Amino acid sequence: MKALVLDTNEWENTKGMKLLDVPPPELDEVRCPEDANKCIIKPLYTGFCGSDKGIWFRHAFKDMIFDSIHQEAKSYRICGHELLGEIVETGSYAKSHYGYKPGDIVATESHIFCGRCHQCKIGDAHVCSDHLIIGISTDGCFAEQVKLPAKELWPTDLDKIRPEVAAIQEPLGNAVHACSRVDLRGKTVAIFGCGTIGLFTVLVARAMGATTIIGIDPDKNNLKIAEELGLDSSLHIPLNRTQNPTPSPDLEIAEKIRQQCFGEGVDVAFEMSGSNQALNTAIASTRAGGDIILFGISSGDYTLTDFQNIILLGKSMHSVVGRKVFQTWYIASNLLMSQGHSLQDKIYEVILNRGVGTLFPFKDFNPTEFEKAITSHPKIVLKYD
Ligand SMILES: [Zn+2]
Ligand SMILES: [Zn+2]
Questions:
Q1: Which domain covers residue 277, as residue numbers?
Q2: Which end of the chain is more exposed for a tag (fewer CB within 10 A), N or C?
Q3: CATH (domain of 91)
Q4: What is the mean pLDDT of each run of 10 residues along the chain (385 residues)?
Q5: Are 89 and 35 in contact (CB under 8 A)?
């Protein structure tokens, strides 16, 4: 079968992914008893994630990919984890216990949780201490078939959610998880970083009751898309100010945000950029007693400026990783299926630009065109047939 892979003989001085012919996955319960729990799925649409972009340009996930590939004694990793697909074959337990059958339409949680560790046992599977990530530490869905555990699958109703949007429930889930950390009803909100998840956060925060939503980004195109999605106001940070590596907050931005919120600051700030300065600006822009939601990451140390005032002003910080399995998926589905929130229309029409320049056929994969698209649109979807 065809698969879009990272060839692990290549990393330094290379970029991109290769369309290769590789053996298809199979269910063999005699040789691998755990295959009983699995399904073979034929992807219909898949989303290209920011983490895939990190692999494409070789600045993320090297160790996780190479270490896991060594254990499997292979030379490539099939990438991709944002999936909408059709089940074509089920293991015996996937069928008898989960009721899956060929023809069922499913999406998948991308973190394969172990189900045995302490966190899994107490209902915190999103921070499982022994998990695999599809498309990074185990083979993914940029392929004509993918084998996945039945327990990770999320049945999806294509009469209610259009397939291009159903394929990106997983990254939407990051925004849903972030917006579920604190009560947003009637609240003022600032979103630092209007990349893909920041854009989803505009929609989800609004649907969950946020009244004023302010977007902050150095990229004018990101802000333009965020405005189309319903931002109340946008603050552009001149690029020369973000190139300055100081962790100190941008006091001009913080003051502009305070002015829009009773002179006090927002109730909730979302840090979705991974910038140390943005984190401190987010904290400075939040009112006393407010909440800061941490989602953006970079490796290395961060500095918290004016630390004592985080405590003295009673500001709370909450980190968000992945999605709650499956509470987040349930809320994301309800939001997409709700006529009142027109979330899926806005995702399709604005974030996916109605498919123009964002929808690519998997079979005729053209790396040059594809690379242009992933650097100029917030979300790209691959279509299979
Ligand atoms: Zn993703
Ligand atoms: Zn676990």
A1: 178-319
A2: C
A3: 3.90.180.10
A4: 93 94 98 98 97 94 93 95 98 98 98 97 97 97 98 98 98 98 98 98 98 97 98 92 82 97 98 96 98 95 96 98 97 96 96 98 94 96 96
A5: no
